[in-house]
Design a protein that fits this description.
Chain B: Keywords: Ligase. The complex is a heterodimer. By secondary structure, chain A is α+β, with helices and mostly antiparallel strands. Chain A contains 3 helices and 5 strands, in the order ββββααβα. Chain B has one domain: BirA Bifunctional Protein, domain 2 (2-Layer Sandwich). In chain B, helix 1 packs across helix 10 and helix 5 crosses helix 9. The chains are: A alpha+beta, B alpha/beta. At the A-B interface, strand 1, strand 2, strand 3 and strand 4 of A face strand 9 of B.
Amino acid sequence: MHGEYKMPGGKLVVVDLAISDGCLAQVQVSGDFFLEPDDALHAIDAALEGQDAGADEHMLATAIRVQLAPGVMMYGVSPEAIAVAVRRAIDQGAAA
Amino acid sequence: MTRTLWRDHDWHLIHVDPQPPALHMALDEVLTHEVGTGRRPPTLRIWEWGGSAVVIGRFQSLRNEVDAEAARRHGIEVVRRVSGGGAMFIEPGNTITYSIYAPLSLIKGMSFQEAYAWMDAWTLEALGELGIKAWYQPLNDITSEGGKIAGAAQAHRGGAVLHHVTMAYDIDAAKMLDVLRIGREKLSDKGTQSAAKRVDPLRSQTGLPRDAIIDHMIATFRRLHGLAEDTLRPAELEQAQALALGKFSDGAWTGEVA
C-alpha cells in the first residue's frame, strides 16, 4: 500500500506499508525532505511499525514525535505530514 | 562556537578532471569530514561528471524514484547521495554541479531557509551578472522567471556543513522523464502540469558555453569570498576511491530506502 502527501510549502512524503492483523507492518517512509541526523528515518519507520491501522492522523503524528530523539531537525517534513501520507496509504489501499 | 563570515575563512578551490558519479558521492563525504576536522580549509569544489547519472536523495525510495530498466537502457548510473532532497538527472555536458564544504560556524544560528540562501548568495550574484534574474525559492530551489534553474541540498556532518547544488545547463527532458518517476502529487502545489516545464536551463537563458558560466561563477566567488587554487590530496582521493568502490557502488547503500 502506497500513499503520498506534498506538505504545503514543504516536500513530498511517501509511505509504503502493509497491514498485518490490523497493524501497520513493513513501514517505509521516504521522500525528498531533509532530516538531521539522517538515521532519524529509521526511528520514524520504527515508530509507525505495529501502530493500529485505525489510528487517526493525530495519534500517528504523536507516535512519531515521541520516538524522535531530542535535537532531530526536520526540514520540509513534519510528523503531521508523515501521518497524512500514512493515512492515505491505508485508506487508498483499502479502497483499491 | 560563534558565527563566522565568508571572509573569515581561507577558501580553496578544487576543480579537476571528470570523475565517475560514485566517486563524486564519496568525495562529498570525505571532504565534508576533512573540513569538519580542520585538516582541510573550507573548500569550493566544482564537479566535472565522467558519466550520466541519476542521483537520488538520502531519504528517497529507489524504486519509487527511478525506472531501473530505463536507466540501464540509457547507460545511466544510479547513485544515492549523503544529503536529502530530490532526484537529479545528470548528463555531463548538461549539468553544472558544485559543493561547498564549510565549518558549521558559517551558518550558526540560521534557520534552514536562511542557510540555503546564504550559501548560494554568490551564485545569485554570478547569475545576475550574466543577465539572469534569479532568486531563492524556498525550500531549496534557485529559480528565475523562466523556471527552475537549480536545486540545493545541505547535510551536517561533525563540525561541517556540506552544501551542494546542481544547476541545469541544458536538459534532455524526454530522457529525464523516461528515467525518473515524477508523480502528480509532487507537482500538486507547483502550479504546472509538467516536470519538464519546471526546469529552464542556463543555456537558453545565457547563450553562453557551459565552461564560460563556470569560469564566471568561480571569478564571482573569488571576488566576494577569496579563493585559492587547490587540488585533491592523495589521501583524500584514496579514501574517496575506496568509498566509491565500496559504499557508494553497493546496493545496500543505494537501496537503503528500497
